Amino acid sequence: MTSVDSRVTKNGKRTERIYETLVPWFRCEGDSIPARRTWSKFLQRVHAYGLLAIVIGFLCLADWSDFLVRRFSLTLDYSFYGQAWFLIAHGHLDPYSTTFPPTFWHNAFELVMWPLAALWYVWPHAVTLLWVQDAATAGCAAVIFIWMCELTAQIAKSKNLGAWTALFPLCGLILLLANPWTIWIDSFDFHPQAIDLFFALLAAHFFWRGSARRGWVAALLALACGAIGATYVAGVGLSSMLAGRRWRRLGAMLLTLGILWLLLISHIGGDRASGVYSNLTQGAHSTSITTYQLIQAIFEHPSRAFSSVWSVRKDMFADIVPGGVIGFFSPWSFGISFLVLVEGSLTGSAGFIEPYVQNSLPFIFLIPLGTIAFCVTLASTRQRWKRILSFFLATLTIINIGGWSITWFHRTESQWVSVSSSTATTLSRALAMIHPGDEVIASQGIMGPFAFRQWIYPLVGGPVASFPIRSRTVWFVMSPGSGIETETTIEAESQIGQIAVQLHARLIIDSNGIFVFKWRPRPHQRSVHFTNVISVPAWSLYSFPSVTVTKGPAKLWHVKQSGSSGYIVSGDYWRLQNGTYTASVKLSSSGKVEVALLDTSTHTVLKKEIFGSTAGSITTKSFTGNVVNLRSPEAYPGYGFFSVKPVEPPPNDILELILLVPRLTHASIYSIGVSNQASEN
């Protein structure tokens, strides 16, 4: 044999040894699933009609999403993804985010947005991303339901059980469709978690069946979705290791791959969203930490980690219980559910672990899978009491999910839709007149549909704020009393006054509580600033049946009422704490004007003053008093067993300064203000 032949033989043997070593890590035997034609007729019907019910559920979700868009119920989070979607579709392959700087991929390395950009050329509307989210959610439900049916068919055949076992996947279908958190999560703007989870569930299902190639394709797609997808893949790996010996090697590889991908994303700066763990980084120079630093912080300060988890225990309970607590501990449910629960609870914030935020989506699908798997396994035993127990547990889960549905479904619209149809019509008119190349600075509660542009900035809280000027034309879209806003109405109204008086912007729309300004900055102006003021313009408040006058210099704009009695100004909502306050009114009147400060949280009058005629001159009147025993408004927590720990409003009462005029009195109101000396000090 020649030396060349010898080397070829050696290389071939080496390749064969490497192949023989690696193949067992990629291969899995899986479970043998009976052909569908061999299933009982009852199970076949449950399977077919169950998938039809999931399709109908998807159509209902899609219709609801369209309603959310038409009512401008898309907020800051949607604008983050919507802006990236628009920019990538228009050739900006490394889009800069103006809502969560710097660049988009630094958030969580969510590469899934790049292929989604192709949908812009199919249907370039805000609802498209929501429909993608709805489809992925329905896809998750379909994967889990099919898994339930196959698991039931497998155990029924091996244990020679009757057609009655189809009742268990039917129970699982109810758990999937009746969970109120599904529509709540899909109502919260757009987030790619549903897409990530869909690929991860596909991977887990394929590996369970023994379809290793398909499983790896799905797992790699989940990894491509970013840091969250990597967490899900690591969870699939953990579940595989727990599920049995045949999946153990495969699970170890998936777990390692998911962790390594997370570390790589962290190393290149693709997980800036880790700033949510600021409670674990007290004393650090930066609140944004890498995955490695997060693990290090947990081991260095375990008490902080425990305190964070303990503070959100009620929300963790609400995540797990609707699908059946026992399902959490099933091997194929545990991996992803456990990692997501740990990630969310370590933030110490209800905003990241509440059952209606996107992070909680895995619990909706995986825990019912584990619950049904446990019940079917229990029913397959020979002991009669165990079979009875399995049906008792299944019935109990149905009653349980019914309680959660009754408690929370009816709150969906009031929770997520706070823009009236007339206000939405006004916003649609504003959206139509703004050019895509113009810069928009908008209230965060309604800014989602305005996101398809290069420059959009949110008004998230203030009133002190600063924004760069990127375009020759800047639009301000303000909705003080509409949308799910993070800044108070007073902060927004004070900014409205500064836009009109200091920037001399043109008021284009003043209708249905929406204020739209068009502003052309000076040639060399690079930014716009808002400062803290203690008064707001009266013309920006609710003034029916009085008349708003917005002619002439903006500093003289006012609200006037002539001859008729009633409210002249109301709708100003101030968040104050206990202490000494001063209320002031800039007005002119021909007679008496009654000024009252109301605590709208308790519907009580805190102070009332009557000011006399100003003889036609513009005068500022004020009075001082004390505010004591204020009670904060409370968010809806649910009832008893079916409750959560919601994100509470700021610890202040909401006060309103209202002005009333008697009959035949002519009055004009220019501005009003309430300052709390305790909060100022």
User: What number of structural domains do the residues give?
Assistant: 3
Radius of gyration: 30 Å
Strand content: 15-25%
How far do the termini sit from each other?
94 Å
Q: Biggest β-sheet, characterized?
A: 6 strands, antiparallel
State the low-pLDDT regions, or none. none
The chain-level mean pLDDT equals: 87
Count all strands and give the number: 20
Count of helix runs: 22
The 3D shape can be described as elongated
The secondary structure category is alpha+beta
Q: How much helicity do the residues have?
A: 40-55%
Keywords:
single chain; 681 residues; Jelly Rolls; six-stranded antiparallel β-sheet; five-stranded mixed β-sheet; 46% helix
Question: What's a quick, concise take on this entry?
Answer:
By secondary structure, this protein is of the alpha+beta class.
Can you offer a commentary on this structure?
There is one protein chain. By secondary structure, the chain is α+β, with helices and mostly antiparallel strands. It has 3 domains: 36-58 and 127-414, no CATH class; 75-125 and 419-533, no CATH class; 547-680, Jelly Rolls (Sandwich), CATH 2.60.120. Helices cover 46% and strands 16% of the residues. It has 22 helices and 20 strands. Strands 8, 9, 10, 13, 16 and 20 form a 6-stranded antiparallel beta sheet that branches. Strands 2-1-4-6-5 form a 5-stranded mixed beta sheet, with helices on both faces. Strands 11, 12, 14, 15 and 19 form a 5-stranded antiparallel beta sheet that branches. Strand 9 and strand 10 (558-562) form a beta hairpin. Helix 2 packs parallel to helix 6, helix 6 runs antiparallel to helix 17 (361-379) and helix 16 runs antiparallel to helix 17. The longest helix has 32 residues, at 127-158. It starts with a helix and ends with a helix. The mean pLDDT is 87.
